[in-house]
C-alpha cells in the first residue's frame, strides 16, 4: 500500500498545495476571523477559537523544530535553512503589519527585532558548499 501511486507523487503534491493554499493557508493568513465564520465558528462567542489557532500554530512550529533537528544532524541542512527563511520572513511581515495597524500588544511589536535578527543569523549561518 505504501507508495502505490508513487509515480504521481509530484502531481499529488501540486494539487494538495494548490487546494490547501486556496482553502486554508491564504484565508487564515489574510482574514482569519472571516475564515473562522465560514467554518461555522461563532465569533466572538467561541473563545475556543484562540485555543484552536494556537494549537494549529504550535503544530506547525513543531514541524519546523523537527526540520531544524534533522538539519542539525546533517540531513537536509540547507532545506531547513530555506524553510527558516520563509518562517522568519513571514513572521517579520506579520509583526510589522500588526505594529502598523496597532492591533497587537507591545510585546508582539518588540518581536520585530527578534525576527529581523533571526533573518540575519540565518543568512550568516547558511550552509554554503565548500569551494
Keywords:
transmembrane helix; 131 residues; mainly alpha
Would you write up a description of this structure?
Helices cover 76% and strands 0% of the residues. By secondary structure, the chain is mostly helical. It is flat, with a radius of gyration of 18 Å. Helix 3 (48-72) packs antiparallel against helix 4 (77-101). Keywords: Membrane, Transmembrane, Transmembrane helix. The chain crosses the membrane at residues 12-40, 52-72, 78-100, 112-128.
**Class per helix and strand makeup:** mainly alpha
* Largest beta-sheet characterization: none
Number of extended strands: 0
Strand content: under 5%
> Count of helices?
5
Could you give the distance between the termini? 43 Å
What is the H/E order?
A: HHHHH
Query: Percent helix among the residues?
Result: over 70%
Overall pLDDT score: 95
Transmembrane segments: 12-40, 52-72, 78-100, 112-128
Keywords: Membrane, Transmembrane, Transmembrane helix
Write the layout of secondary structure elements.
Elements (H helix, E strand, L loop, with lengths): L8 H22 L1 H7 L9 H25 L4 H25 L4 H20 L6
Amino acid at each position: 500500500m505504501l507508495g502505490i501511486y508513487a509515480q504521481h507523487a509530484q502531481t499529488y503534491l501540486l494539487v494538495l498545495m494548490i487546494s490547501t493554499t486556496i482553502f486554508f493557508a491564504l484565508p487564515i493568513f489574510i482574514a482569519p476571523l472571516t475564515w473562522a465564520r465560514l467554518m461555522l465558528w461563532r465569533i466572538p462567542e467561541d473563545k475556543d477559537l484562540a485555543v484552536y489557532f494556537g494549537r494549529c500554530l504550535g503544530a506547525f512550529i513543531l514541524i519546523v523544530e523537527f526540520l531544524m533537528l534533522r538539519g542539525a544532524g546533517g540531513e537536509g541542512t540547507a532545506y531547513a535553512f530555506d524553510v527558516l527563511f520563509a518562517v522568519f520572513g513571514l513572521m517579520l511581515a506579520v509583526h510589522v503589519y500588526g505594529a502598523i495597524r496597532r492591533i497587537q500588544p507591545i510585546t508582539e511589536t518588540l518581536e520585530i527585532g527578534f525576527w529581523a535578527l533571526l533573518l540575519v543569523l540565518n543568512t550568516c549561518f547558511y550552509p554554503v558548499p565548500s569551494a
